[in-house]
Amino acid sequence: MKATKLQVKIFADNLRLEDIESFVPVFHRWIRDNVLDEMVIDVADYTHVPGGPGVVLVGHGSDYYVDVADDRPGLLYSRKRALPEGAELVDDALRRALKATELLAAAAELPVKPVFSTQEILIRVPDRLHIQNDEASFDGVRGELTAALGRVFPGKTFELQREGEPREPLTIRARAQA
Fold this sequence. Notes:
The protein has helices at 24-32, 88-105, 135-152; strands spanning 6-11, 40-46, 54-59, 62-67, 74-79, 117-125, 158-163, 170-176. It is α+β, with helices and mostly antiparallel strands. The protein has one domain (6-176). It has an eight-stranded antiparallel β-sheet with strand order 2-3-4-5-1-6-8-7, covered by helices on one side. β3 (54-59) and β4 (62-67) form a beta hairpin. α2 (88-105) packs across α3 (135-152). The chain is globular and about 45 Å long. The two termini are 28 Å apart.
């Protein structure tokens, strides 16, 4: 995949909008204690913005959001620079998102423990210059995404479905099959 940006969202349907602000001190602790193996530098609270991005942990190469888009709360991992190449790109994004969900689920500061599910994962490529939201682009990345999902979530098989309009970034919903 020749993307310069990649996003992965893992949903936590037990969270409500009023729970999102409680993630601010958790993200501040991640910065203070160097919890992640990358440079994270700031926390932004957008919970006051209707339809906004929620709470954001801003990093040099990646951002982590407790996102409430489409009324589906979850952890949105967004890789924006220094992307790994080839097959490692998707693997790395999935692994970082999964690690962040595990850390959040274990965070003692949270009054409501998020329950993240890997039964449904949203993958977005916000790089329309290199990858458009059309069937040709979807067909071009389908095999790579399927293989990466299989490596990161062994034993699970995912059905991939392209979503959105051609003017939007390529968005793929991966649903685990029973």
